[in-house]
Design brief:
Elements lengths: L5 E6 L9 H9 L2 E7 L17 H20 L4 E4 L3 H11 L4 E5 L4 H13 L4 E5 L21 H11 L33 H6 L8 H14 L6 H4 L13 H6 L4 H14 L4 H23 L20 H9 L5 H13 L4 H14 L4 H11 L5 H13 L6 H7 L3 H7 L33 H8 L1
Parallel strand pairs: 1-2, 1-4, 2-3, 4-5
Flavin-adenine dinucleotide binds next to helix 9, helix 11, helix 14 and helix 16.
Length: 462
């Protein structure tokens, strides 16, 4: 017999029914459940650098994902209440109105989210909270390190974790939820409540559609349907198109898909279709994602600081005019500008693009790396605290320079550049990589051409 618990399932970055321990446990332990998602209005406010902390593509992608969750919950009898201001407002209201005894939610790891959880616990001393770790491929209790001993190099983490840990099995979707009576599902709020204009909203076109359905469809497509996974190892460094890489990151960021679901699908693919370097590499990338999560937990808020967790002091130049050019895709360096324009329009950028834009930002423009990380946070539909800030940190402090002129040639980015920079549409394959040598109407002069690029420029001209 179930105890007379009345549960609230608080969805956050776990916007899915499959493999969701909070959902499964609440359904098992409670006689009635209420489902809730809360937007945090403050994340759409302005950053001191002059852009929104989270911009419209993120809002749109979230809207699609939460709306899909609402429909999927309905199909098993659940009603999703959507809070519009903050969990700190909506959840206490729901707890008191519906006599909620227990709250079930995914466990958080970063300070902004943890502070909300702590404040909520203080507001609701009578309510029992249950948290479940669900973000990573390996459960944080199953890795062979305590968080304070997470290694400083990914290799040291990966090899040991890979040898000694196993992902847990995915959980089934509950067949039926028993909802708290008289609770009505509510609509996703309008963009206007967050200060976006109709024009901005209309123009926002996230790179992929949000939601668990779209995520599972993408997983099926990338594996069994198209078998694109087989060539991932060799295509993953490109920049243009849907299939050179998995595009799982936006879904992982909001938890529309669980990493263990991906793992099990890849295992099945290896058994039935092909096991090769590509299938290994995709899982390797998920392990990277785990590593950054655990490492960010080890260093806490130091990962957001200009000096980083190593407390390194650099003389950043941080010229605001250069920063604005970089943000707008107007540096005059086509490989950088094409990627930044793609990011601004779609909320997505390839890994190759991110590496180049970040490296150019810190090593050539010499701007405080936290400004770049904040801008990516605003724009990326796959924004993930640890993946974003730890990758930026790595570009700033731990990794060698990436030459954007050389890379544009190496990765044959001509068509990609012509696609995103209309001013260079008519440029030939040589001109489009080094347009400052030829002049193209309307395309900006480069901020600076560095002598260290000479070799790459001469190679293109050959
Ligand atoms: P695939 O190549 O198909 O990889 C599969 C999955 O592995 C990805 O979905 C992602 O979850 C994970 N993964 C791959 N590379 C990395 C990596 N370097 N670090 C962590 N996880 C990785 N990724 C985010 O998910 N959110 C971010 O906010 C983010 N910011 C970044 C900022 C910078 C400066 C850099 C260099 C990288 C950043 N990345 C971030 C990592 C990476 O660029 C994206 O995960 C990847 O491009 C997403 O495309 P995909 O899903 O097709 O990746």
């Amino acid at each position: 017999m179930k105890a007379k618990k009345r549960g609230l399932i608080w969805f956050k970055n776990d916007l899915r029914l499959h493999d969701n321990e909070a959902l499964v446990t609440a359904q098992q332990e409670c006689s009635e459940v209420l489902c809730c998602y809360c937007l945090e209005k403050s994340i759409f406010e302005n950053h001191e650098l002059g852009f929104r902390k989270a911009d419209l593509n993120r809002f749109r992608f979230l809207e699609q994902s939460v709306t899909n969750l609402k429909a999927n919950l309905k199909s098993i009898g659940g009603q999703l209440v959507i809070g519009t201001q903050s969990a700190l407002v909506t959840i206490p209201e729901l707890v008191h109105k519906f006599q909620i005894t227990d709250i079930y939610a995914e466990e958080e790891y970063a300070s902004y989210e943890l502070n909300i959880v702590r404040e909520l616990q203080q507001k609701l001393p009578e309510t029992e909270f249950h948290f479940f770790w669900g973000k990573t491929l390996y459960h944080k209790d199953d890795i062979p390190f305590t968080i304070d001993k997470i290694p400083l190099t990914s290799k040291a983490y990966r090899i040991t974790a890979g040898r000694e840990s196993e992902p847990r099995k995915t959980m089934d979707i509950p067949k039926k939820l028993n909802p708290v009576k008289k609770v009505k599902a509510t609509k996703f709020p309008t963009y206007k409540d967050y200060g976006f204009t109709p024009k901005e909203y209309k123009n926002a076109k996230p790179f992929v559609k949000g939601g668990e359905d779209a995520a599972l469809e993408r997983l099926e497509y990338y594996t069994f349907k198209s078998e694109e996974l087989t060539r991932y190892r060799w295509s993953r460094n490109q920049s243009e198109g849907m299939d050179y890489s998995s595009k799982f990151s936006p879904y992982l960021a909001l938890g529309c898909i669980s990493p263990r679901e991906i793992f099990e699908k890849v295992q099945a693919y290896e058994q039935e279709i092909k096991k090769n370097q590509s299938t290994w590499w995709l899982i390797f990338e998920l392990v990277w994602r785990d590593y950054f999560t655990f490492k960010s937990m080890r260093f806490g808020d130091q990962i957001f600081k200009t000096k980083g967790y190593k407390n390194r002091h650099y003389q950043w130049e941080s010229d605001p005019a250069k920063f604005r050019k970089w943000c707008g895709g107007k540096t005059g360096i086509p490989f950088i500008d094409a990627h930044m324009r793609q990011l601004n329009q779609t909320g997505f950028m390839s890994n190759r693009g991110r590496v180049n834009c970040a490296s150019y930002f810190v090593h050539d423009l010499k701007i405080d790396w936290t400004w770049g990380a904040a801008y990516f946070e605003s724009k990326l539909i796959d924004y993930d605290v640890s993946s974003n800030w730890m990758n930026w940190h790595m570009q700033a402090f731990e990794i060698w320079y990436t030459n954007p002129v050389n890379q544009s040639n190496k990765y044959k980015a001509q068509d990609f550049i012509r696609h995103w920079i209309p001013e260079l549409k008519s440029a030939n394959n040589m001109e489009v990589l080094i347009p400052w040598e030829y002049r193209f109407k309307g395309y900006p002069e480069p901020i600076e051409i560095y002598p260290k690029w000479n070799r790459a420029i001469n190679l293109i001209k050959k």
